[in-house]
Amino acid sequence: MGSWDSYCAICGGPFNTLTVAQKPRSERFLRRHGLSQPQPSSSAQANHPTEDGNADTTAETGDDEAAGEAPIGTITQEDEREDGSYDRDVVTSTELAWVQDLHVLMTNENEDTGERVGCVSGVGEFYDNTQVSVDDGDDPNWDPTAEIVLYDGCFPFHWPCFEVLGTVLEGKTGIAGLNKLKLYNTMMRASGICCSRLDRLDYGDPGPYNEQWWEYQPGTEFLVVHPTISLEKTTALIRERWMKSTQVVNPSDRVRRVSADSFQKLPLELLLKTCSMLTPQSLHQLALASPTVDALLGDKPFWKQYLSVHMPWSYELLSIIDDESQTFQNADFKSLVRWVDQESTPRQWMRGPFMSIANRRRIWHVCEQLKPVYSGRAARFPPTEAEKRRMNLRRAQMGMPPPPPGGVFQMPAIGQ
Ligand SMILES: [Zn+2]
């Protein structure tokens, strides 16, 4: 069957050594991808180190290709090399090394009770196809003689992704509170036959392709950035932004705006409920239109509740709001929340320290899909788009109308 890559069950990312280009992106690369010039740093951009040991003082920029350059629609070998590597101005090999460390989740029999239990290996590395080698680690239920075949009774993952999963499934208790057997059974239900990641999960858009080998997609370095390593840096960055964002409202202007504010007639509970359902962007706009709403948004408990629902992946904002020494007086938290939401939205060509939050945010949404089955609220995962299409085709062949939007598909039960 040849060779293929297996991916992290949680983030869908690779375990391979990733290639970072030795040369800066060429003019031709920028033109081919519709970028007339290098992407400006995001407002959250911090100084980025250059690739360690890869300084190539003789690097060509591609400018000299102009004479006799291949047409843009033609992909040259150099184009393939550039597309098949990450931008050295965005990430370094050192920053990407974390993806090579994997662990696996599988089951074993408890020596004392004979019961089936879930267990996690120590750190290991990926070889090819379904092959890995792992250390025994410190899980007392781990079987050192276990035969490991990825996605055949055994699920590989990165530890940082596992930590995010632990927080999504068990809250503050995290991975210490995880029921590994339940998690194993949940992943079994989310996987298909001969898969290289959990087929029933949506890994995001943009997200990692599920190809035979890891696919480098230009401008998606954030997909392989460690989701929590730069917490201190990003928290400091956000805090600094907040400290600068005090809002000063002219008293006469406030009186004029309040007198014209129809929201002040609404009951407080209704206003709070409405605010709690809005996106950060809509909330910000509403507060600009209504001084009554703006005053409500100076309330710390509101934001604690709001962040836990809308942005639970933003560890930085949650830590800032938990800091009791922090005052809310005149500090424009609504603008800060909107800014973090925008900066951390997963998107192509993003760069800077917010890539870490963006990847965490993406992984968080993957983990949330596991929650209903893990917690027992659902018996199975919703059908994939391919399954829906097959089902519709079968119904059409049988002369049945397609199910209504949101209708329930009857899928065959998947074994434990
Ligand atoms: Zn992962």
UniProtKB/TrEMBL annotation:
Bias (Low complexity): 36-46
Residues in F-box domain copies: 260-306
Region (Disordered), start-end ranges: 24-88
Full protein name: F-box domain-containing protein
Lineage: superkingdom: Eukaryota
InterPro entries found in the cross-reference section: F-box-like_dom_sf, F-box_dom
